[in-house]
Amino acid sequence: MKHLTALLIFSILYLTSYSQKYMTKNGYIGFYSHTPIEDIKADNNQVASVLDIATGDLVFQVLIRSFHFEKALMEEHFNENYMESEKYPKALFKGKITNISSVNFSKIGAYEVIVEGDLTIHNVTNKISTKGTIEIVTGGINATSKFMIVPEDYKITIPWIIRDKINKTLEVTVTMKYTPVVASR
């Protein structure tokens, strides 16, 4: 019986191990615009992301049509007129946590990080750099960040008739709850 238990434990450890990668398919990205005329807020809870804690590599993929607005007409204009969601269905970020060595992944706590990489929206790629927080929690990693983007930098054209209703810079909020990727051997 003792040998059988040891063999079972060895088999489980051999066949299944936790990799250095964490992921989520239900991350949140939202954006907010404030003007004296109108506030605009959109939410997307279907963001896929992978974080490699060994290298700091970080990837986000966002379906543009998964952003939802308070007003259905805003959502329709966003997809059809500004983002051209049929033509450019995804936004993508590929980057790196540049100070990943400052995070102690074996100790529960919050750590400030710096994220740099390429953000592609509307088929235009720009370099971004922002601060964020990595929080080590029981069973996973939470990540948050807020930064600003300028729609014109991504060749997103806002018609002059509503230009005063949309701020020239949008605040982007990112909230991820990562769980470990279980790798089989």
What does this structure look like?
A hairpin with a 2-residue loop joins strand 7 (124-137) and strand 8. The chain has helices at 2-15, 72-82; strands at 16-34, 39-52, 57-63, 68-69, 90-97, 109-121, 124-137, 140-149, 170-184. The two termini are 26 Å apart. Strands 1-2-3-5-6-7-8-9 form an 8-stranded antiparallel beta barrel. By secondary structure, the chain is mainly beta.
Question: What is shown here, in short?
Answer:
With 185 residues, the protein is mostly beta strands. The chain has 2 helices and 9 strands, in the order H-E-E-E-E-H-E-E-E-E-E. The model is unreliable at 4-17 (pLDDT under 50).
Beta-strand content estimate: over 45%
**Element-level helix/strand string:** HEEEEHEEEEE
Low-confidence parts lasting 5 or more residues at pLDDT below 50?
4-17
Intertermini distance:
26 Å
Q: Helicity, in percent?
A: 10-25%
What would the average pLDDT be, to the nearest integer? 88
Radius of gyration using CA atoms only: 20 Å
How are the strands of the biggest sheet laid out side by side? 1-2-3-5-6-7-8-9
